[in-house]
Write a structure and sequence with these properties.
heterodimer, A: about 260 residues, alpha+beta, OB fold (Dihydrolipoamide Acetyltransferase, E2P), 5-stranded mixed barrel, 2 helices, elongated, B: about 350 residues, Four Helix Bundle (Hemerythrin (Met), subunit A), Rieske Iron-sulfur Protein, 5-stranded mixed sheet, 11 helices, about 15% strand
C-alpha cells in the first residue's frame, strides 16, 4: 500500500486552520485585497462623466449647465395650458408678450393648474439656458382681480426637423444634462411625471433651438414619444408661435428614430 | 456542526473570513472613489450621485465572480476548501452591495419623481423592439430578485426545511443571476462607456469563471471513475485492489445517474458509503476519517463509516453499501443497505 500523503484537512466547525495552510491563506488574503483594491482603482480611474452633453450651447462648453439658476423668483402673467402650462409675461400696455416661461412642479413633476381665466403669480426657481426659461414652481397664486388674455397661436408653417426629445427641466439644467442611458431614463421619468416635453433641434426653427412638443391637436404628446426620448429622431408637424414659445404639433405617424 | 439554529455560528475562522471580505470590499470602494475624485471626474456636484451607483454595481459583480470561482478552485486545488465553508457569507455581502447599488439608483435617477421607483425601473426605458437598444434594467432587476431570494434562504434552517436537493438546485440559480448581470452590463453600462475598463472587467471575469469551471470539470472527469459494464459481476461492482485504497482515503466510483460511492479504508477495514453528503451534496469521498466517521470537506458534517448515521444528537444519514473482498479485489453492491443506528452495512468476508 502506498504511503498516505500528509495533506492538511480543514474542518469548518473546528474554528482553526491547519498549520500547513496558514501561510497559503496569508497569500490568499493579500491577493484578494490587492485584486479588489486594484480593480477599484482601475474602475475609478477612467469613469465616464454622465454630464457630458452633446447639446452644449457652445463648442467650448463641455459640461452643460444653466446660465442662470436662481431661487425665489416671482412672475405674474397669463397661462396657456396646452400642451403644457406656460406663463406669458405681457408688456405694460398688454399688447405684446415679452417672455414665455415653461412651468414645472417640484422634482420630476409637472405643475398642476387649470387656471386660464385670471392672471397668476408664480414663485419658484428660475432656470435659463439658451432660449429656454423654466420656472420650477413652488407656489402658484391666482390674481382674481385681473382677467387673463392668453396669447393666440400664430401658425408658423409645416416643419420637418432632426433633434432630440428631452424634458424641459433637465435640459435647461435642473439636473446635469447628459447623454446615453442615464439621460434617457431620467428624461423618461420626468416626462411620465408631466414635466413639459421639448424638442431640441439640430438646426434652429424660427430662430429658436428648442420647441415645446405637442400632439397633432395641440394636446400633450401621447405614449408614442416614450421610445423616442433622448434618441436622434426626425419629427414632422405644424409649428405655432404662442407668445414667445414655439409649439411643435407633431404627427406621430411621421415621427421616426434615426 | 451544531444542532441548534443560530443566526451565525461564529468561529475564529469565520470572523477572520468576514473581516477579510469586508476589508476587500472597502478597499475596492476606497480605490474607486479616491481615483474617481482625484481624476476630477465628478465634474459637477450633481454627477457625484452616479459614482456610488457604479462603484456598488461593479463591486457586486466582482463579489459574485469570486463566490462562483470558489467551487471550481476547490476542485482544482484542495487548499481552497476552507473558502467554501463560509461561501454563503460572500453571497450575503454580495446581496448587500447589490442592494446598495439598487437603492442609490432609486436615490438618484428615480428620486424626486411621483412614480414608484420599482415601477420606474421598468418604464424608464421600455424599447423592447430593438436589440441594439434593448432595455438593460430588467436584467438587473431579475438578478437582484434572485440574489434576494438566495440571501433570504441562505440559512441552514431553509436547507433543512427545503431539503438538500431542492435547496442546492435553488441556489444554483446564482449562475442565472450571473448571466443576467452580464446581460445587464452588456446592454447597459457597456453601451454608454467610452473607455474599456468595464468591458475588461466583465469579459475578463466571465472568461476566468468559465475557464475555471471547464478546467475543474475536466479534472473531475479524469478523477472520477465511472462504473462500466465490465465492472459489474453478478450485481457487484469491481472497485479496485485492496492495496490501491490508502488508509483514511477513498476510491470513488460513479454509478449510472448522479449517485457515486466512496470506498474508504480505515486501517484494515474497507467500507462503502455514499459520495454525496446529506448536508449539501458535498464530496464525502474527498473527506477524512476521524474516530470512525467520515468528515465532509465542505462543511464538516460527519457520518459513521459503517452505519452512515451522523453522531447523536444529529439525525442525518447517508446510504451505505455492502462490500465484498475477493482475492484482494474490492467489490461493492450498488444497492444501499437500509441503514439505521443499529444496523451496520453488510461487510462480507
Amino acid at each position: 500500500m502506498s504511503e498516505v500523503p500528509n495533506e492538511p484537512f480543514f474542518i469548518g466547525w473546528s474554528g482553526r486552520l491547519p498549520a500547513g495552510l496558514r501561510a497559503f491563506y496569508v497569500s490568499v488574503t493579500v491577493c484578494v485585497v490587492l485584486i479588489f483594491a486594484g480593480l477599484g482603482l482601475l474602475m475609478g480611474r477612467n469613469i465616464d462623466d454622465p454630464g457630458l452633453n452633446l447639446f452644449a450651447q457652445r463648442a467650448s462648453e463641455s459640461i452643460a449647465k444653466p446660465e442662470l439658476w436662481v431661487s425665489n423668483q416671482k412672475f405674474t402673467g397669463s397661462l396657456s395650458l396646452l400642451p403644457y402650462p406656460v406663463l406669458h409675461i405681457v408688456s405694460g400696455d398688454g399688447v405684446s408678450v415679452l417672455r414665455s416661461i415653461l412651468l414645472s412642479g417640484s422634482g420630476k413633476s409637472g405643475v398642476e393648474t387649470t387656471e386660464a381665466t385670471y392672471q397668476v403669480s408664480a414663485v419658484g426657481g428660475l432656470l435659463k439656458r439658451g432660449d429656454i426659461d423654466m420656472l420650477a414652481v413652488d407656489e402658484l397664486t391666482v390674481v382674481n382681480t385681473k382677467k387673463a388674455t392668453p396669447p393666440l397661436p400664430q401658425p408658423a408653417g409645416q416643419w420637418q426637423s432632426i433633434g432630440e426629445i428631452c424634458d424641459g427641466k433637465c435640459y435647461p439644467g435642473g439636473m446635469t444634462p447628459g447623454f446615453g442611458l442615464a439621460h434617457r431614463a431620467c428624461a423618461t421619468i420626468c416626462l411620465i411625471g408631466d414635466v413639459p416635453a421639448i424638442f431640441v433641434v439640430a438646426e434652429p426653427i424660427e430662430g429658436q433651438s428648442f420647441l415645446l412638443l405637442a400632439g397633432p391637436d395641440g394636446e400633450p404628446p401621447g405614449p408614442w414619444i416614450r421610445e423616442m426620448i433622448a434618441r436622434p429622431v426626425e419629427l414632422t408637424g405644424m409649428v405655432e408661435r404662442v407668445g414667445q414659445m414655439l409649439v411643435f404639433k407633431v404627427d406621430p405617424k411621421k415621427a421616426r428614430i434615426l | 456542526m451544531s444542532e441548534r439554529y443560530v443566526p451565525i455560528g461564529w468561529s475564529r475562522t469565520k470572523l477572520i473570513y468576514d473581516a477579510v471580505l469586508i476589508f476587500a470590499v472597502c478597499a475596492f470602494l476606497f480605490g474607486f472613489f479616491s481615483m474617481a475624485r482625484r481624476a476630477g471626474l465628478a465634474t459637477t456636484p450633481t454627477d457625484e450621485g452616479s459614482l456610488p451607483i457604479r462603484a456598488f454595481g461593479s463591486c457586486a459583480f466582482l463579489l459574485l465572480t469570486l463566490a462562483l470561482s470558489i467551487g471550481p478552485l476547490t476542485r482544482l486545488d484542495k487548499r481552497f476548501l476552507p473558502l467554501l465553508y463560509n461561501r454563503r457569507h460572500i453571497g450575503i455581502v454580495t446581496f448587500a452591495v447589490a442592494a446598495a447599488h439598487v437603492f442609490t439608483v432609486f436615490d438618484w435617477y428615480l428620486a424626486f419623481s411621483p412614480i414608484n421607483p420599482w415601477l420606474g425601473l421598468f418604464v424608464s426605458d421600455a424599447m423592447f423592439q430593438r436589440l441594439d437598444n434593448f432595455p438593460f434594467v430588467p436584467f438587473g432587476v431579475l438578478a437582484f430578485l434572485i440574489l434576494s431570494v438566495l440571501a433570504a434562504t441562505s440559512h441552514d434552517f431553509w436547507l433543512k426545511f427545503l431539503g438538500p436537493g431542492l435547496w442546492k438546485g435553488m441556489h444554483m440559480s446564482l449562475y442565472a443571476a450571473y448571466g443576467l448581470i452580464v446581460a445587464h452590463l452588456s446592454f447597459g453600462a457597456l453601451q454608454g462607456k467610452q473607455n474599456l475598463d468595464l468591458s475588461v472587467l466583465v469579459i475578463g471575469s466571465a472568461a476566468t469563471l468559465l475557464s475555471l469551471h471547464l478546467a475543474a470539470a475536466l479534472k473531475h472527469a479524469r478523477v472520477l471513475r465511472h462504473c462500466e459494464k465490465r465492472d459489474l459481476e453478478a450485481g457487484w461492482i469491481r472497485v479496485a485492489l485492496e492495496s490501491q485504497v490508502l488508509d483514511g482515503r477513498a476510491q470513488i466510483i460513479a454509478l449510472p445517474g448522479s449517485e457515486a460511492i466512496a470506498v474508504f479504508r480505515d486501517k484494515d477495514v474497507i467500507t462503502a458509503i455514499s459520495h454525496r453528503c446529506a448536508h449539501q451534496n458535498g464530496p464525502l469521498g474527498e473527506g477524512r476519517i476521524i474516530n470512525g466517521h467520515v468528515v465532509c470537506p465542505w462543511h464538516g458534517h460527519e457520518f459513521h463509516l459503517t452505519t452512515g448515521c451522523a453522531p447523536a444528537p444529529f439525525t442525518d444519514r447517508v446510504p451505505v453499501y455492502p462490500v465484498r473482498i475477493e482475492a484482494g479485489m474490492i467489490y461493492v453492491k450498488p444497492t444501499p443497505v437500509h441503514n439505521s443506528r443499529d444496523r451496520a452495512a453488510e461487510v462480507e468476508p
